[in-house]
Amino acid sequence: MTLVQMQPRSAGADPAPQTVENAMEAPGPQVCDDMTVEVALSVMAGARTGHLLVCDDDGLCTGLVTRARLAAVRAGGAYTDRIRLRDVLGDSGPFASPMTMVAEAEHAMRYRRLDAVPVVDEHGGALGVLALAR
Fold this sequence. Notes:
Elements: H1 20-23, E1 30-32, H2 37-47, E2 51-55, E3 61-66, H3 67-75, H4 85-89, H5 102-112, E4 116-120, E5 126-131
Helix pairs in contact: 2-3
């Protein structure tokens, strides 16, 4: 049995909507988009993480790759050890703004079947990762 600790609240008080900024995790490892899939999988194993933020040469976030996605690419018939992360990412995004409401971001993630999305600032710099609770 799991115990849940309840916090008393005043009658009629609605909890303030939570923004992504308050719910995101630290960004974790960030790698360049010219890294190969094999090296990225090694970085993930070493960092004990299931995802990496991918950045371009200017340090701007271009997306997020997961261990499952990279494993699927590696298992594909067209795989070579020269495939780079930029080849795996495809189109940029989706991304979350730190000011987005958590409920809105979670809805979009569930609709797109994503476990995590990068949170970026107005310039495209990575601030963190929003991951769905399992």
